[in-house]
Amino acid sequence: MGLLSAILTAPAAPIRFVDWTTRQVLEAAEQEKYDTSRIRRQLAELYERFDDGELSEGEFDRLEDALLDRLEEAERYQGLR
To answer: Residue 22 and which of 50, 54, 60, 78 are 20 to 30 A apart at CA?
Structure first.
């Protein structure tokens, strides 16, 4: 039965591979998106850029708000896991 099963399911192997690959990519993207330490590093870099005069106050506020929203979302996500 094992050989027959392998022969009959062989055509589906590429589909299973694509499915597995897609799940791996999505999992890696999710881990990166919800990595609070990464977001905190980005915030620190943002503060440094603002202190160095590379950003206007308006641009800084916009970027800071976006990062703080991401951080809040990431902390909620990790609390659900």
So the answer is: 78
**Residue 59 identity:** E
The model's pTM: 0.69
Contact 60, 46 (CB under 8 A): yes
* Domain interval for residue 52: 14-80
Q: Cβ–Cβ contacts within 10 Å for residue 38, how many?
A: 15
| pLDDT band at 12; cut points 50, 70, 90 | confident
Residue 6: inside a domain: no
Phi, psi torsion values for 56, nearest 5 degrees? -75, 165
The total domain count for the chain is 1
Percentage helix, strand, coil, to 5, in the chain?
Answer: 90, 0, 10
H-helix or E-strand containing 40? Answer: helix 36-51
